[in-house]
Amino acid sequence: MHCVAPSSSISLKSITAPAAVINRPSHAKIQCVASRFDAAAAASNQQLSTAAPNTSNFALGGIKSRSDWQSSCAILASKVESQQQNADKSTGGADKITVVNGHTSLDLVAINNLPKPLTIADLSPAPLHGSTLRVAYQGVPGAYSEAAAGKAYPNCEAIPCDQFEVAFQAVELWIADRAVLPVENSLGGSIHRNYDLLLRHRLHIVGEVQLPVHHCLLALPGVRKEFLNRVISHPQALSQCEATLTKLGLNVTREAVDDTAGAAEFVAANNLRDTAAIASARAAELYGMNILADGIQDDSSNVTRFVMLAREPIIPRVDIPFKTSIVFAHEQGTSVLFKVLSAFAFRNISLTKIESRPHRNRPIRLVGDENVGTAKHFEYLFYVDFEASMADVRAQNALAEVQEFTSFLRVLGSYPMDMTPWSPSSQ
Ligand SMILES: O=C(O)C(=O)C[C@]1(C(=O)O)C=C[C@@H](O)C=C1
């Protein structure tokens, strides 16, 4: 996996692109994004984009990718123009061919120089042929999300983003081909922010990876536990180590920051000798920190589940274990939830996850006089993962039934299950 240096991490401010590139209906957050590439975006984009095509590839036979194709067209066009100017000079333009409808054609191009027609492969969304898959993740190098990106796509170019939302946008704006984002942890539970973002954005879940998460307590070289009065990390990491921090007898305040590796980077950059970070051993190595305590997660089998997101869904299969993620909302009444769940139960489809989130658009509704006693109630969205592929007729029938009971239903993705066995890791 190739890593992009922390300084090039993408931020919301720097993600700006022509509005026309946004391939989905606009929503509030995206609308505030400026409709041009600003200097920062141009700089990071330059760093993130694949290397400029070698000019030798511009020979028409050497076209390997869409970008080569576009460059070839540009070069061909300028060649035609200059040849035409030369020809015009020598012949006064008399050798032009007039076609039947009266329009004048270009000069004839030698037959072996004709551009090849675009094929379906040239239009395939991602990865571009011959180029590395670009995978957006939240955090800086050394974050667990970077490790998850490497597990999901071993030879990818991992692109750090400063917020989850930026990782979504990076894919939507074609700066990245995929995003890899955490959705739940065995100790800390669901990462709700990403559930909300899955709904707000139009990306598809195309895979999942489970990553054993092994936390270390990091401090600057020479710093001992007794010197510490603060521990900083990602809120999930702090909660995953809560009991162990207490057991270590540290008299510290705990502060949340954007990501684990970012915490290590912050301590190192500011030479903080009273502050430790909870992060990975890789972060210790990257930012020149010492490991004061190793494996400080409260449970040795601490694991985080990440999903891979893409602009296009994958074609579901039935020959390997698949999972499908859906989100639905229903009008009032608890019996609907029971009916939905039974649609799966009757077909022997196992659910692996159910999560409810308050419905953001209509969060609270006052109940009328006839229902005296209940002041307010919330409306909910339900996220369900089940063990079946959308190519499986049982899943199709179950969803057809669910659709009847619900006012809103969306399939977030149907994707291969991560079946890799894992054990308490030393990562
Ligand atoms: O901060 C990181 O290193 C992350 O990759 C984020 C994150 C998370 O959001 O849950 C990922 C895995 C761990 O559970 C802790 C933190």
From TrEMBL:
User: Where does it reside?
Assistant: Plastid, Chloroplast stroma
Query: What's in the keyword line of the UniProt record?
Result: Amino-acid biosynthesis, Aromatic amino acid biosynthesis, Chloroplast, Lyase, Phenylalanine biosynthesis, Plastid, Transit peptide
Q: Does the keyword Transmembrane helix apply?
A: no
Record-listed E.C. numbers? 4.2.1.91
A GO BP entry is: L-phenylalanine biosynthetic process
| Domain Prephenate dehydratase: residue ranges | 134-311
Extract the Gene3D superfamilies matched here: 3.30.70.260, Periplasmic binding protein-like II
Coarse class of the protein's main subcellular location: plastid
**Which pathway?**
Amino-acid biosynthesis; L-phenylalanine biosynthesis; L-phenylalanine from L-arogenate: step 1/1
Domain ACT, first and last residues per copy: 325-416
Reactions this protein catalyses: L-arogenate + H(+) = L-phenylalanine + CO2 + H2O
State one Pfam family annotation.
PDT
What is a single molecular function from GO for this protein? Answer: arogenate dehydratase activity
Q: What class of enzyme is it?
A: lyase
Give the GO cellular component terms, alphabetically.
chloroplast stroma
Q: What does this protein do?
A: Converts the prephenate produced from the shikimate-chorismate pathway into phenylalanine.
Name of the molecule in the record: Arogenate dehydratase
